[in-house]
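User: Let's play a game. I give you a shape written as tokens, and you guess the letters that built it. Ready? Here's round one.
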């Protein structure tokens, strides 16, 4: 069984879904550790309560990313746990060096829009304001662009006339919980190839 780590900054509902799907046998992975940049992240409490290793790692002085000497600690912690795949689940930091190189092609992120539409933050609000009729969620490889790496899985969610950012986010979240497991299984199986930006199943 391959080892995954979840990096999360907040609520942890995607982590909860990952744990549930490991326990019910639909996600074929060993959750070796959960790491947060916030000591008070609910995700750490979820991990601990479920019997998983939960670690807070000091993010340093920057608000949206980690200085290399702080990111290095993330790398060594992931390596110490023999992590095969890093799964960002609401980890609100831009990934840079040395993590990108140490885990090249082995970091996934989930994002609550149909990328490349609406990268960044508060994207459900942005989708509503723009007036799109569908939004959704995307699981993608992490590279040196923000929300820009090759796309592994997406799910579309219709936008209803009476939606607000919260109701839309809740319906998107349901799909996030489903497609993240599918994407992790695919990547861990190795049954895919990347042609240009396209992630194509081979199995
Ligand atoms: C999720 O909607 C996830 O897609 C989003 O944060 C939320 C975390 O929820 N991530 C991003 O916006 C990353 N750009 P959770 O903590 O309940 O899993």
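Assistant: Ready! My guess for every position:
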């Amino acid at each position: 069984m391959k080892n995954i780590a979840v990096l999360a900054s907040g609520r942890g509902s995607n982590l909860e879904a990952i744990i549930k799907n490991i326990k019910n046998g639909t996600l074929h992975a060993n959750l070796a550790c959960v790491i947060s940049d916030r000591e008070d992240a609910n995700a750490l409490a979820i991990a601990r309560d479920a019997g998983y290793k939960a670690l807070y790692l000091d993010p340093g002085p920057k608000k949206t990313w980690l200085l290399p000497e702080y990111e290095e600690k993330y790398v060594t912690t992931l390596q110490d746990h023999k992590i095969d795949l890093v799964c960002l689940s609401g980890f609100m930091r831009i990934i840079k060096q040395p993590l990108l190189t140490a885990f090249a092609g082995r970091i996934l992120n989930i994002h609550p829009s149909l990328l490349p539409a609406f990268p960044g933050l508060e994207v459900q609000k942005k989708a509503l304001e723009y007036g799109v009729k569908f939004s959704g969620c995307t699981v993608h490889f992490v590279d040196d662009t923000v929300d820009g790496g090759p796309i592994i899985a997406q799910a579309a969610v219709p936008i209803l006339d009476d939606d607000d950012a919260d109701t839309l986010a809740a319906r998107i979240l349901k799909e996030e919980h489903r497609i993240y497991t599918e994407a992790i299984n695919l990547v861990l199986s190795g049954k895919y190839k990347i042609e240009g930006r396209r992630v194509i199943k081979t199995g």
